[in-house]
Every structure is written in C-alpha cells, then in structure tokens.
Specification:
Elements (H helix, E strand, L loop, with lengths): L31 H5 L15 E4 L9 H9 L4 E2 H8 L3 H13 L3 E4 L10 H13 L1
Antiparallel strand pairs: 1-2, 1-3
Helix pairs in contact: 3-4
C-alpha cells in the first residue's frame, strides 16, 4: 500500500476546493450543550471511567441520535471510557447522556469487577506443587 502523495503549492496560492462544494460549506460541529440538552438540576450519575454500561432495551423513538448510538453500543458491557472513545465525545458529555438514560432506566450501570490484592494461599501452593512436579 502506497501512501497518498501531497501536491505542492506555491506561496500565496489558495488550496484547491473539493468539486461540488462551495468554499466554507461543510460539516459544522455541534456545540456540546446542544448534544446534552438542557438539564434541570444539573446532577450527574456517579460514573467512573471503568464503570460498565449495559443496555436494557432498544432505543425508543424519542431518543436523540447520540443516545441511540450509546444504546446500540451497549448491547455488550462497555466502560464509559470505551463509549467516549467510540463516539468521539468528551467524557463529561457521555456522562450527561448516560445519566439521562439511567434515569429513564434504558441502561444499567455496573461497578467494575475488583480483584483481590493477594491471591488465595491454597492457589499459590497448588501452583507451586504443580511446578515442582515438572
């Protein structure tokens, strides 16, 4: 696979425009408050980056495109950090959207699985005896 080649321009030369598009026309990014909507009380759910989110049902007709995308991704458990990365949205925006979905009981938040700091002594002894038999 060969990388795309750049075309050189002379100083002062304007960049070529795409065919069929007018200059300045294109996708205008939405402001983040437009995506999250107006919240009455401003409270957010206590969500960590590693909190697992699972969808309880499909997206309703009244869901925004961002909420529908979240519900589509949450068929399998995903962390809030993964959802933020997949949707290319900041963590704060994703937590606001998830708070609305949690309030409507469309998703379920699960705490991450915490492993014990030290393994069980009997497990270590069984591994040690198995290694000694080798």
């Amino acid at each position: 696979m060969t990388p795309p080649q750049r075309q050189r321009r002379q100083p002062g030369e304007k960049p070529p425009s795409e065919p069929g598009k007018k200059p300045g026309e294109g996708k205008i990014p939405e402001r983040l408050y437009v995506l999250t909507g107006a919240t009455e009380d401003g409270d957010r759910a206590e969500l960590d980056l590693v909190t697992l989110i699972v969808a309880r049902s499909d997206a309703p007709q009244s869901a925004t495109p961002e909420q529908a995308a979240l519900l589509g991704l949450c068929i399998a458990p995903l962390s809030v950090a993964e959802l933020s990365a997949y949707l290319n949205l900041p963590y704060s925006v994703v937590t606001v959207l998830l708070t609305e979905l949690l309030t409507a009981e469309l998703v379920q938040a699960r705490a991450p699985i915490v492993r014990q700091a030290l393994p069980d002594r009997s497990l270590l002894e069984a591994v040690m005896h198995g290694l000694q038999k080798l």
